[in-house]
Amino acid sequence: MKIIRGGIVYQGDEWKNDIDILLEEGKILDIVPKGKYNEGQAIDADGYFVCPGFIDIHIHGCAGRDVMDGSVDALEDIARFIAGHGTTSFLATTAASSREATRASLKAVAAIMKKQCRGAQILGVHLEGPFINPEAKGALAGQHILPASINGFTDLAGEYEGIIKRVTLAPDVEGARELTGYLVNKGVVVSMGHTAAGYDECIEGIEWGMRHATHFYNAMTPLKHREPGAVGAFMAREDTTIELIADLVHVHPAALKIAVGVKGCSRVALITDSMAATGMDDGEYFLGLQEVVVNQGVARLKDSGNLAGSTLTLDKALRNMVSIGFQVNDVVKMLTEVPACITGVDDHKGRIEKGYDADLVILDKNLYVNMVFIKGNWYGINI
Ligand SMILES: [Zn+2]
Which residues participate in catalysis according to the annotation? Predict the structure, then answer.
């Protein structure tokens, strides 16, 4: 048994002082006042924040690697790098690409999910495209965009359909209604994104089952007072969730505050949408197969100059949000409990509760990662 001793623990939306967390066999065995038990290996967390592990439901890559590399090695590098930044589980996110390249990525994810790997755990795949509107492709490759259809999806997924937990699609592409119905029935999260649809069409999409918005504000129709767009649709509908890239580049701080103000922090997940250059020097990289130039940490497509993912990590997202005035506990919720709910793993991840997975992040007073536990295993931090 391990004991995380005396931390300031995030539990039930608030901080509790002088708490011991008992870990055994990868789970949280109990949460007790400091010093109640003395057997086992004690890890001193006195004066540190103890939070559930962060969950990133939209990440393409980091550390020079991309999910579209299609290799177990690349996924392991990504999993290890983000663990050092407090992320204990994630959805490996593909970028619209050829059937062969997508299959190779799915195969690698399926392989890694079967074995015990060090670093953050992969919860499954988030397919970002290819069923999107070319007019709102952002940094996705136009030549690989396809109309939506059940056959198109099953053909792309092949034997790996079971690991696809989330699909970003646009309501304004042909066949979107049919594919949304199919995916919702299978329990896949359908998120609306990369769309040029107006308000009415977006509301229809929400009715079909698109209850989450992919990188809210980015690559979707904006809110105007007579044309509320996709942004207005998700703000107006309480039965939806959104995700935000809090790198302070993709979305203006005021727009972050407005979105969280309208939705409430229990309906907002923070994501990185990070790409290979994360944790690396400025230079030339790829997002999927698209050429990207990174300058001062901002990634843009070489040809169009469109933003091409971020170089954000979730611990940085936490510090960014706090720097613009958010409360730490509200931000932690958006990094843990909310993404766990969106992906349907909230019965065992995203909170510090008895019986939950022992995925924990220990942060110092300045909100830098000090220690990380993934399923009870101490993940050495070297950053
Ligand atoms: Zn993305």
Answer: 273
